[in-house]
Amino acid sequence: MKKKILLIAIFILLLFPRVIYGQMELQAEQSGQMTLLKLESEYKQKEGTVKVYDEHRLYYINQLRTDNQGRFQVEVQLPADKTYKAQINIRGEIKEITFPQGENETPPPADSKHVALVIKGFGETILLDKTIEINEGDSVLDVLRRACQENDIQLHYENTGYVISIGGLSQGDGGPLSGWKYNIGNTTPGISSSNYLLEGGESVLWYFVKTPANTSTDTGFIRESLLEGGQISYNDKNEGQITFTMTENEDKPMSFSFPKEMVPEIEKNEIKWVYIDMGVVQIRIPAEEIKNMEAIHPSGTVELTLKKIGREDLPDNKSGFLPEGLEGYSFSLTNGDIPVKSFKYPIEIEIPFPRNVGNEDHVTVFYWDGESLAAEIIGGKYNPQSQTVRFMTNHFSLFFAGEHQVSFQDVDEGLGLGLAKPAIERMASQGIIKGVSKDHFDPHGYVTRPEMAVMLVRMMKYSVLSDELPYQDVEADAWYYGAIQAIFQNGIMTGYSQDEFGTGELTWQECDILFKRILLLEGENAEIDFQNSRENPHVTRAECAKIINSLYEILMK
Description:
By secondary structure, the chain is an alpha+beta fold. Helices cover 18% and strands 32% of the residues.
């Protein structure tokens, strides 16, 4: 009898993998393609992280918050016939379980289990009309890899989904901008081949793109655009840019009219940036913003105007905004006859600051909207070689560069702050962080989630895209309401649940997820080291200044 009971207990443990660690109990239950992760613990109303992964990739990562009974659960969809690990991290305690994701109970119809694959080089077809059986969760890259292996075709690729060569035909063999692309039917997806998951029944075409004949390799892979005066180039991340160079006119405002064919040219050449060199001022506009303006008012002419402003051009009571001997730069943008007040995607601008600078970290950019009583800091990074300042903005105004130094009485290296002191002063001088008062920073106080949202919006210039905000714990009159709207709507920071954002202290686990998400979205292959700051699960204001400064340095390099 005892032996029978033991066998039943072993069967139950194998059916529902579970691990118990003192204060935490984690279980994985499978239902079809979904796996339900259930946590029971003694950590009541605590924050943490949950992630699911295998030896090859990360499938799911998010923040968690236990309820008042220490429970949490989340449902995750995972490809079948694999073994996964689920990891829970609460207050620095990390627990894991390993569990299999079994085969679907009801297999899909046979016709949805195959795709048609064609691989074309230039002048030859490497693989013609091959029918490939797919598995649940297969990506375009998975199918290509399997087909090449079955047909003895050489394949080199990166785990990101970027294909280097097929059948000995490699990127660069057809010119400096040549390489492999794929279509699904007649559509070119905008995501990597490792991230495009197949459902079955698709036609997949891999084809080799040669460098256009008018490309010159002697000019840094630059070629003439079909748009008058435009040149197309690509950086080391394969990001395309159209550049327009204008002749500066000292006496008159400068205007640039975006060509009507701009959007088709952007889409055809996979352009990410439109760069306008207006002499002493350079502007870089995300191509998505141009497409957004075209969608809003397709029949209008988009025109950018730049005007230099001196002290004599300002009202008498505002002329002190501009440093003596310097000019400001007033920008305006119209779409047809409609002024464009703000941008969905931040714009980069570079303006002169021809001064001998004492501390580069104190050089920043100010803006004045023409009505406010004072100019506001927008931030920026000084380049001593060109004596210019580069900054990001989500609106146009009058901009000018200057020096702005902020210090606090309670911030001193002798108080155990070390490298935090220059980071605090730099980020405060750039207007990204603020003290609790004019003279005090409170470096050992803890940062809240709303405060982090505000700092990131100040730095990244995220815009509020709509009136949407589902969280009931964020009051409409709260000083951070707009920042939480912007950071939520831009997909950077989410709440603990559908109706709760969470306004308490920020944890290191939350920081880790948040910063990785920003770097991923910005296309930056970099990491920020948090390891020297893990003595407490929550983030102090001094520690926050250091990691915000590190992020700023990466993004503004």
